[in-house]
Specification:
alpha/beta; 20% strand
Length: 182
């Protein structure tokens, strides 16, 4: 048993040392942030952000109104409401409305589940993936009232912001969007 623990310890030490030597600027205690990255496939290009990269997309101060939906392919209510966000995107595109779909799918499933889902459903709204495991830090930055459950949606513009931790029908979504357009 002690030999097994020693062997595991040596393997871990070697792998950490190897990672440190290939990245001298990082220390063993630091976990590298996931930077904006693109995962390319012949079918779907996917932008991947850590929360620091995504945060700028949640706080734009221009003339548009943004509808940002947090969802995942494994979330049945999320998948059920996605067509409403797609329809909203098409219907209000000419009124300076932009829909952003933020996938919380697991990184190891981007190629096997998320990208095929995007292609199969022919999503036209911008889809990005959030790969930031420190949920306790970024969830309250999206909204202090958010428990972390999905679907969750933020509607905002330079003058107002509203957060929803619920599923939407198209009619409900349009009713929440309309005050932002006046």
């Amino acid at each position: 048993m002690n030999k097994m623990i020693l062997l595991i310890g040596l393997v871990l030490a070697f792998s950490c040392k190897e990672n440190q030597s290939s990245h001298p600027e990082s220390s063993v205690d630091e976990v590298p942030a996931v930077e904006e990255t693109k995962v390319e496939s012949p079918e779907v290009a996917l932008e991947i952000y850590d929360f620091d990269g995504l945060e700028s997309l949640l706080n734009k101060k221009d003339e548009k109104t943004y509808v940002v939906n947090f969802w995942a392919t494994w979330c049945v209510p999320c998948v059920k409401e996605l067509p409403h966000f797609e329809e909203l995107n098409q219907k209000y595109k000419g009124q300076n409305v932009e829909v952003l779909l933020v996938s919380l799918d697991f990184p190891n499933q981007y190629d096997s589940k998320l990208k095929p889902f995007i292609q199969e459903k022919k999503l036209t709204s911008q889809v990005v993936a959030l790969n930031d495991p420190d949920m306790n830090t970024w969830i309250p930055k999206v909204d202090e009232s958010w428990s972390g459950a999905i679907p969750a949606t933020v509607i905002y513009n330079k003058d107002a912001r509203k957060f929803f931790e619920k599923s939407f029908t198209l009619e409900e979504l349009e009713n929440e969007l309309k005050p932002f357009l006046n």
